[in-house]
Amino acid sequence: MTADPHLATRAPSLPEPPVAPPSTWARLWRWPLFQLAVYLLLAWTLWRVVGHVHTVVINTLVAYLLANLANPLLSRLERRGTPRPLGILLLVLVFFGILAMISPLVSTLVREVQALITDAPKLLNNLNETLRRLSARSALLASAQQQFDAWVKVNQQDLPGRLSKSLGTILAPDGAVFSGVKGAFGLLGQGFITLVIAIYMMAIYPSIGPFLVRLLPLRFQPLARDVGQHVGRAVGGYFRGQITVALILGVLIAGGLTILGVPSGLAIGFLAALLNIVPYLGVILSVIPALLLAIPLGGLKVALVAALFLAANQLEGHVIAPRVVSHSTNLSSLAVLLAIVFGVETFGLMGAVIAVPLVAMLKSLLEAYYYSSRAYRAQNVTTPAMPSAPTVPVVVPSDDPAPEQVTSVR
Question: N or C, which end of the chain has less CB nearby within 10 Å?
Fold first, then answer.
């Protein structure tokens, strides 16, 4: 008996291996509420950890910001054939050279700040005398002068101590802002640690972004890389421009007050530059001690000081900031003002510092992703068709003996 050649010989099929049931974690992870709870727990844990090591976090963020500010210069040197380590060395040498050049100014600045704090009661008396002379012309000013006079009598003696205590809280070795690692180093130690971290970050800056992107799932990496580039350009460009604007304004105000003969001109210029990290804040707040110091010098000096600060404010808003900052942020003055107000109301002084770069970052992301998206640019909006009117027969009279014509009108 011969086998049928049309019958194919097949190996016996093996049973498929049993599928392992999903683990308990996999079953739980399918629930959106469970995922939300896990993410909230991770965020709370991160917040607690950051709260305990906030000094290290602040140092790291400041160091990264310094590396971001220096990276364009280092990249330009690299394109011209200078190795990055040599560029970093040159940058550090220039930095310490500038510190050595301005060290005499630092001691003068410290003395002027101390004199400004010591003379605070005298400045209040000058302002009180000015209000007293003006109060004879207006009942409203008389009421304000009486209230201010009562406040001066209560706070005049304690004002220098309060100002010194406030500055000490900010700048002392055991201060709240610049507390050292476990309170051991102080301001100089913090500055040295931040500088060392910044130098290391400058050396590896081109690889920091790719390393952070590589931590994400593959499907998110292109988007994260693109978003990081937009954020870096917006935030880094803003801080580079605003620091430049602050330095220019500080030099202009300090030089102008020195020429006018106003005491503590260098200290007021430093105050204007320091506070102008928040746009417009430096000029607005530093004009108060400048006017108080100019009152004993006569009305002409007061008017010249006011004109100096008005000119500085106009230069910042219409000449310096548009040329230095606008190419990276391109925000209107109203947007900047609203961002600062919301930042102050939400997070205080730190909110005022970070509000404008956050708005600039948001604007950059909107322009890159939303304004160019199909959802924003779609124009084929369909409108429902209107129902046609019913046909109404209309009899048209005619002079002919023929039957009258009947037409239809919609």
Answer: N
CB atoms within 10 A of CB 50: 12
Please state, in angstroms and as integers, the Cα–Cα distance from residue 21 to each residue in 14, 135, 208, following that order. 21, 87, 40
- The strand ranges marked E within 247-336 are none
Task: Assess whether 227 and 201 both reside in one domain.
Answer: no
Q: How would DSSP label each residue in 124-188?
A: HHHHHHHHHHHHTT-HHHHHHHHHHHHHHHHHTTTHHHHHHHHHHHHHSTT-SSS--GGGSS-HH
Tokens of 343: 């930042």
Contacts of 26 by beta carbon, 8 Å cutoff, 6+ apart:
none
Query: At CA 282, angle to CA 278 and CA 288, rounded to 5?
Result: 145
Give the Cα separation of 126 and 128 in Å (integer): 5
Q: Verify that 71 and 208 share a domain, yes or no.
A: yes
Which residue range forms the structural domain that includes residue 101?
A: 33-120+169-215
pLDDT tens digit sequence for 58-117: 888 888 888 888 888 899 999 998 899 999 999 999 888 877 876 776 677 677 767 766
Cα 153-158-162 angle, rounded to 5 deg: 135
Q: What's the pLDDT tens digit per position in 312-360?
A: 888 887 787 777 766 666 777 777 788 888 887 877 777 777 888 888 8
Residues 266, 359 within the same domain: yes
H or E stretch including 394?
Answer: strand 392-396
CA dist 187 and 178 (Å) reads 6
Beta-carbon-side half-sphere exposure of residue 199 (alpha carbons within 13 Å): 15
CA distance 77 to 204: 15
Residue 101 sits in the same domain as residue 225 = no
**Contact by Cβ (8 Å): 246, 270:** no
Pair 208, 236 in one domain: no
Cα distances (Å, whole numbers) of residue 399 to 402, 403, 404: 8, 10, 9
For residues 237 and 315, state if they share a domain.
yes
- Which of these, 262, 271, 322, 256, lies nearest to 297 by C-alpha position? 262
